[in-house]
Specification:
Radius of gyration of chain A: 24 Å
Chains: A mainly alpha, B mainly alpha, C mainly alpha
Distance between the termini of chain A: 26 Å
Structural class of chain A: mainly alpha
Mean pLDDT of chain A: 93
Low-confidence stretches of chain C: 1-16
Number of strands of chain A: 0
Mean pLDDT of chain C: 80
Radius of gyration of chain C: 21 Å
Helix content of chain A: 55-70%
Low-confidence stretches of chain A: 565-572
Shape of chain C: flat
Largest sheet of chain A: none
Number of strands of chain C: 0
Distance between the termini of chain C: 48 Å
Oligomer: heterotrimer
Helix content of chain C: 55-70%
Order of helices and strands of chain C: HHH
Largest sheet of chain C: none
Chain lengths: 572, 260, 113
């Protein structure tokens, strides 16, 4: 397939390598109000970054409590009631306050406009509103936690959540309801931006795969989130009014709640993972210095995951009381949804083949993602199969499966994105040694935490139970040991990334020698991103011929031993 | 290439007005898609229960106040008409006509809400509220029915729903053919209150937007180039109208095909 | 779709899409159609003659009304394909939601896992 490079329609020369700016988006205005009332998509991305980091820590502490409690077969530090609240808090905070916003709200907000050559997202004020809505929703959830928490599990199933639980279900559910609107706003903004604000030359076929991924994610956010909104509303009505549509006393069906709930919550997991897959496409091409294998396949597989992801929700309900026919249908559809994800993994592997690979932190996180996501994905097949699911449902097998894909997959992709784009966002380079070390520590810690959980699940340990037979203790102890290593691995970036803000080397415009439009601006960028209208002349990953999307020669790529050699930063 | 001239309507991050209008319209359409999915949860749940309990749903539906629903339907459809004329006025730069059509639309929408308020008040008076209120009312009617003699005149259409239901169920066991379960009537009523309530909240939000448009137009912030602001609100208003067009038959006309 | 085209000839200040202004007669005609359909819907059901097909008929009438409102009043007849795609896609997923949930509920009497 020949590489197409447009001749520019105008004789305008390609702009030179951008010089660092004295005034950029971070320092052109000072004061807390300039941040709290900003409409700059980059500042809003940073606001989200700070909030998300805080809530990741909160969710992590909840996880720590759960794992420490599981050290002993009868609960080491928490009562049974407290244990229920701890794992519910972990789930609710990690999913709704961290994973779902994560990449779209931070990197999507920051980089989608830059990647398509626009000055901002389509609706900047809506963007700011989405952060405030997120914070208000988070406030309700925090209130419910501080007031004692919820003990229903993050899935909030009635009739326990609607009638029998004595915990703060209503504020917690209301908090989730509110953050859902933030998710919808972000998705809407990104979708309209990608449709209407691409710069000249940026056709759909030249959109970076991160753009395709966020487009697919926004699709899911827009169509799925409203359904959980109405579901939570109905749950809150039932709880507050004492009567509701899921109440069997008046003919209601609790399984109907599960249908309504999972119609969103399954696609929600694709909201979580698809942006991560977009990031992987970016980093894997850059750090193999090679065009992605099968651009169209990877692009359309994002859309495929988004669409088919809406057809599989009842695989969470196989043993809840749905009919045989529904179970068979959903089992089949669930196997189908594995296909587009597998296509991506094959294409990424093929991208690596004969690439010129270096192992900076973003690449280490990327390679770890490939391993862990694949393992997580294939273990999903055991759960999709009806017969084995009867044995494995609601056991630690499920817990291990989703942690492999969500943590081993998504959180690592988030780390990869953070480490890849940190120089652009902050204008600083971080410690090469410590970033690589933390990637390796996270990988090792992760394995140790969650592989024993597959064994536990297979042996029959149910999830959400604080007690277990003594013969399971060894696996639980190994898992908790792994969790502490994982914790250290997550704390390290907190240190070296923060330190880089004060002591890190100033970053050049394109430290990784990447091709995307976002790298053709200074680090950090100006408030309006580009002071010219970018004219895109080729596809997004022309590493092999060494041009960026503006048609300019790429600088010398980073060597195996570190970052870009500043002297050899090529010009135009 | 920076945009050639700077209109006061054109926002900084857009290249030209056409792109801006196009983006605003698409943004509102996408928001409408989320609204459709939001209501769809209710519609799907309703369909499940209606399939399971057709008699109870039919009985309950036939006791809602159909004349109010009819008038409200006419009001809402007419308000969509005037809203469409408002866009036209904005496109032609006719400020007075624009404000006039917006105000008429708001008046019609407010009329809808006032009638709805009256309807809700009447429903509460009639004790058509699921939960304790409904149960007490029905229990009273059952008691009364027990002591009724065969010579009690049939009040026909003026009979209260509880009396009608108690009479219908007299002598029948729960689960027996022809028994209309009062519990499941409460289920229907949940849907009635929740669906019309949420729809009503959307009407109120729409009214708020329309009044904001009136204020904007009065301050000359809606010149011809900015007509798309009116169009965007009208898209939302039309959707709320369309949702009512589906809501009304399933809630108020479900008793059709059953005797009275 | 949406890629900004520098070659396009109108200046920034031209009021766009003037050719897209609705004709009042057309708008009013749609009004009459939608209103009449609403009254038909209510009238048909009040007469009670429909029996078990009442619900599909009512929803069909409502769908026709919605189509008129969307196509004419909401300007779906204009050429922006993304708008039509948005509408169709949302309806498709509502359809999926219905079919798969009802597929479960309607077949439960046969038993489950």
């Amino acid at each position: 397939m020949s590489i197409v490079i447009d001749q520019p329609r105008f004789a305008a020369p390609v702009p030179p390598e951008p010089d660092p700016l004295p005034h950029h988006y971070l320092n052109n205005k000072y004061g807390i109000l300039s941040w709290l009332l900003t409409v700059d998509h980059k500042r809003i991305g940073i606001l989200y970054l700070i909030s998300l980091t805080f809530f990741f820590t909160v969710g992590g502490i909840a996880a720590g409590l759960v794992r420490i409690n599981l050290l002993s077969p009868n609960g080491a530090i928490l009562t049974e009631d407290e244990y229920n609240r701890a794992f519910t808090a972990h789930g609710v905070v990690m999913l709704f306050l961290f994973l779902i916003p994560s990449i779209p709200a931070v990197m999507g907000n920051f980089f989608i406009p830059m990647m398509i050559g626009a000055k901002d997202l389509a609706f900047p004020k809506l963007n700011l509103a989405s952060w405030y809505v997120y914070m208000i929703g988070a406030a309700f959830m925090v209130w419910s936690v501080l007031a004692g928490g919820i003990d229903t599990g993050w899935t909030l199933y009635p009739p326990y959540s609607s009638r029998y639980s004595h915990t703060n279900v209503t504020p917690g559910a209301f908090g989730v309801f509110i953050t859902g609107f933030s998710s919808i706003m972000t998705g809407l903004n990104i979708m309209v931006t990608i449709h209407k604000m691409r710069c000249p030359g940026m056709t759909w076929g030249r959109l970076p795969l991160f753009g395709w991924a966020l487009y697919a994610t926004s699709f899911i956010q827009l169509l799925g989130t409203p359904v959980v909104a109405i579901t939570l509303l109905l749950l809150m009505v039932e709880r507050v009014a004492g009567v509701g549509i899921f109440d069997p006393a008046i003919g209601g069906d609790p399984v109907l709640f599960q249908h309504l709930f999972w119609f969103y919550s399954h696609p929600a997991v694709y909201i979580m993972i698809v942006p991560g897959m977009g990031v992987i496409s970016e980093t894997i091409t850059c750090f193999s210095r090679k065009n992605v294998f099968g651009y169209k396949a990877v692009a359309w597989s994002s859309v495929g995951i988004a669409v088919v992801g809406f057809l599989v929700w009842a695989h969470h309900m196989f043993v809840a009381g749905i009919s045989y026919y529904a179970a068979i249908l959903f089992s089949f559809l669930t196997m189908l949804v594995a296909v587009p994800s597998a296509i991506k993994v094959f294409n990424w592997m093929a991208t690596l083949y004969r690439g010129s690979i270096t192992f900076q932190a973003p690449m280490l996180f990327t390679l770890a993602f490939l391993v862990l996501f694949t393992v997580g994905g294939v273990t999903g097949l055991f759960l999709a199969t009806l017969g084995t699911d009867i044995h494995l449902h609601d056991t630690y097998f499920v817990v291990a499966h989703f942690h492999f894909v969500m943590v081993g997959g998504m959180v690592l992709a988030y780390m990869a994105a953070l480490h890849f784009w940190w120089p652009k966002m902050t204008g600083r380079m971080y410690s090469d040694f410590w970033s690589r070390a933390s990637a390796i520590i996270i990988f090792v810690g992760f394995f140790l935490t969650f592989v024993p959980q597959f064994v536990l699940g297979y042996l029959g340990m149910p999830r959400r139970y604080p007690n277990y037979p003594p013969e399971f203790q060894i696996y639980n102890v190994l898992s908790t040991a792994g969790a502490s290593i994982l914790g250290i691995g997550y704390l390290l970036p907190g240190f070296y990334l923060t330190l880089s803000l004060f002591f890190g080397e100033k970053a050049p415009a394109n430290p990784w020698s990447a091709t995307g439009l976002e790298w053709q601006t200074p680090s950090p960028p100006d408030t309006f991103n580009f002071d010219f209208t970018p004219q895109v002349v080729c596809g997004p990953y022309e590493y092999s011929i060494g041009v960026d999307q503006l048609g300019r020669t790429l600088p010398e790529p980073p060597g195996a031993t570190g970052f870009v050699n500043k002297e050899s930063n090529g010009v135009g | 290439m920076v945009s050639a001239s700077h209109s006061s309507v054109l926002k900084h991050h857009f290249d030209n007005l056409e792109q801006q209008h196009s983006a605003e319209r698409l943004g509102m359409w996408m928001f409408l898609a989320t609204e459709v999915l939001f209501f769809s949860g209710l519609f799907v749940a309703y369909t499940v229960y209606r399939w399971l309990y057709p008699n109870e749903f039919g009985f309950a539906s036939s006791h809602l106040i159909l004349w109010i629903a009819t008038v409200n339907t006419v009001l809402l459809i007419t308000s969509s008409l005037t809203m469409t004329f408002a866009i036209r006025a904005a496109q032609l730069g006719q400020k007075t006509a624009l404000i006039r059509y917006l105000l008429i639309t708001a008046a019609l929408g407010s009329g809808f809400m006032i009638l709805k308020g009256f309807e809700y008040y009447t429903d509460v008076e009639e004790r058509l509220v699921p939960g304790e209120i409904f149960r007490t009312e029905y229990a009273k009617a059952v008691e009364h029915q027990k002591h009724a003699s065969a010579s009690d005149t049939d009040h026909g259409d003026l009979q209260h729903w509880s009396a009608e239901l108690a009479k219908h169920n007299a002598g029948k066991e729960i689960g027996q053919e022809g028994y209309i379960d009062p519990h499941k009537i409460q289920l229907f009523l949940m849907f009635y209150w929740i669906m019309t309530g949420i729809h009503g909240i959307h009407i109120l939000a729409g009214l708020g937007c329309i009044f904001w448009l009136v204020q904007q137009a009065a301050c000359n912030k809606i010149p011809r180039e900015n007509y798309s602001t009116v169009e965007v609100v009208s898209l939302y208003w039309h959707l709320v109208d369309m949702i009512w067009l589906f809501l009304m038959p399933i809630l108020y006309l479900a008793g059709a095909g059953m005797k009275g | 779709m949406g890629s900004h085209d520098h070659g396009h000839n109108h200046s920034v200040d031209d009021p766009p899409t003037l050719h897209d202004i609705d004709k009042p007669g057309g708008v009013f005609l749609v009004y009459v159609v939608v209103l009449v359909l609403a009254l038909v819907n209510i009238g048909l059901s009040a007469s009670g003659g429909l029996g078990v097909i009442a619900l599909p008929v009512q929803l069909a009438i409502a769908s026709v009304q919605a189509l008129f409102v969307a196509w004419f009043w909401m300007h779906m007849r204009r050429k922006d394909k993304v708008v039509s795609l948005t509408a169709v896609t949302s309806l498709f997923f509502v359809f999926i939601f219905y079919v798969l949930v009802l597929g479960d509920v309607l077949t439960r009497h046969r038993g489950g896992l």
